[in-house]
């Protein structure tokens, strides 16, 4: 009995599934496949370029501060339909944390923060750098201090921002003076807290960068013991989230073009640039002007030579056990032409 019903069922299905209906179903399936293929093809392309560039900056980063004040980058990116969001950080290490967790797409920091971040597994790439600026960071002491040289620092308290460019400067200054890193008592403080400790005499020396350096010299009469000249390069690097850089080379190119123009404008108009930047940084115009003179602003792709110098910094930090593992800086580099 069940066999009879089964045969009738098959007969009815075959009767319903006529050649015309088969052609309709096949045509519908092909249409759906075409639509699906279009979605798969066009959606990634539509989303390939980000519609917002989130820039992490520090108030000490004069070129970014000027860009934001003048709105030049927003105008340059408008034809691409890309807006700009500015996110302020107190220092480089915090900025790298923001880059690592996806809060920003691009940032501007000194030599040391990227090394600490890469050793911690952060996913970023070096996309460019400004020329060396060794005189824009220094070790200073209060004007009445008895300290006359780096060698006098043995057993003294030295303030610096942990994981910043001046961290490496201190290491190299001590090395040149015949001292070890452990011969001084390093006190890790961000710039604002370090200045307060420096003014109160809670620390004996302070290793700091501009514009905080110029402010301490002009406002506190701080005395310079040594700067980075002949000791370190003090490159400043432009970094990006790896995925963002790979998906948005045209945005990075526009950023580079605008940075080049702003850098040239600052160099040619120091007083005017200082007048624009000073209120934002909360510093006197003469302090900002002094700071700007120490920073050559001319963004360029990261060269093989710069990578090699950055590797020396990374190797030094590993030898001192300041980072948990050895890293290859080259693995975190990216070229705009690729």
Give the low-pLDDT segments.
Answer: 1-17, 31-47
The CATH level-2 architecture of the largest domain is identified as 3-Layer(aba) Sandwich
Name the CATH superfamily assignment of the largest domain. Periplasmic binding protein-like II
CATH topology of the largest domain: D-Maltodextrin-Binding Protein, domain 2
Q: Please provide the count of β strands.
A: 10
Strand composition percent: 15-25%
- CATH level 1 class label of the largest domain: Alpha Beta
The major beta sheet can be summarized as: 5 strands, mixed
Q: Give the strand line-up of the largest sheet.
A: 2-1-3-10-4
Total count of domains: 3
Number of helices: 14
Q: State the helicity in percent bands.
A: 40-55%
Q: Mean of residue pLDDT?
A: 87
End-to-end Cα distance: 73 Å
Class of secondary structure makeup: alpha/beta
Q: What spatial form do the alpha-carbon principal axes imply?
A: globular
Descriptive report:
The chain is α/β, with parallel strands linked by helices and 338 residues long. The protein has 3 domains: 2-47, no CATH class; 52-132 and 235-332, D-Maltodextrin-Binding Protein, domain 2 (3-Layer(aba) Sandwich), CATH 3.40.190.10; 135-227, Periplasmic binding protein-like II (D-Maltodextrin-Binding Protein, domain 2), CATH 3.40.190.10. 50% of the residues lie in helices and 15% in strands. The chain is built from 14 helices and 10 strands. It has a 5-stranded mixed β-sheet, sandwiched between helices. Helix 7 links the parallel strand 6 and strand 7 (185-188). Helix 3 crosses helix 11 and helix 3 crosses helix 12. The longest helix has 29 residues, at 19-47. It is globular. It starts with a helix and ends in a 19-residue tail after the last helix. 41% of the residues are buried. Mean pLDDT is 87; it is low at 1-17 and 31-47.
């Amino acid at each position: 009995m069940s066999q009879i019903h089964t045969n009738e069922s098959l007969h009815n299905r075959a009767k319903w599934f006529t050649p015309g209906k088969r052609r309709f179903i096949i045509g519908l399936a092909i249409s759906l496949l075409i639509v699906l293929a279009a979605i798969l093809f066009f959606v990634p392309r539509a989303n390939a370029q980000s519609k917002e560039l989130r820039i992490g900056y520090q108030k000490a980063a004069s070129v970014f501060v000027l860009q934001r004040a003048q709105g030049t980058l927003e105008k340059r990116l408008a034809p691409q339909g890309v807006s700009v969001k500015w996110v302020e950080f107190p220092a480089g290490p915090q900025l790298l944390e923001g880059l690592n967790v996806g809060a920003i797409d691009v940032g501007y920091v000194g030599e040391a923060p990227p090394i600490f971040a890469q050793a911690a597994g952060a996913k970023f790439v070096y996309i460019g750098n400004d020329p060396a600026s060794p005189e824009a960071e220094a070790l200073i002491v209060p004007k009445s201090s008895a300290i006359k040289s780096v060698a006098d620092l043995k057993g003294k308290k030295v303030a610096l921002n942990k994981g910043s460019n001046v961290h490496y400067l201190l290491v190299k200054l001590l090395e040149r003076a015949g001292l070890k890193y452990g011969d001084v008592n390093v006190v890790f403080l961000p710039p604002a807290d370090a200045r307060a400790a420096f003014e109160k005499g809670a620390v004996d020396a302070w290793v700091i960068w501009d514009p905080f350096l110029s402010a301490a010299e002009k406002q506190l009469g701080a005395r310079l013991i040594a700067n980075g000249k002949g000791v370190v390069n003090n490159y400043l690097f432009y970094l990006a989230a790896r995925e963002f850089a790979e998906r948005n080379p045209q945005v990075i190119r526009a950023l580079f073009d605008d940075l080049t123009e702003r850098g040239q404008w600052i160099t040619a108009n120091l007083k005017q640039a200082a007048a624009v930047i000073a209120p934002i940084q909360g510093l006197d115009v003469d302090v900002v002007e002094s700071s700007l003179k120490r920073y050559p602003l001319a963004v360029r792709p990261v060269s093989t030579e710069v990578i090699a110098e950055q590797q020396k910094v990374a190797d030094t930090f590993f030898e001192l056990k300041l980072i948990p593992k050895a890293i290859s800086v080259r693995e975190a580099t990216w070229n705009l032409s690729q």
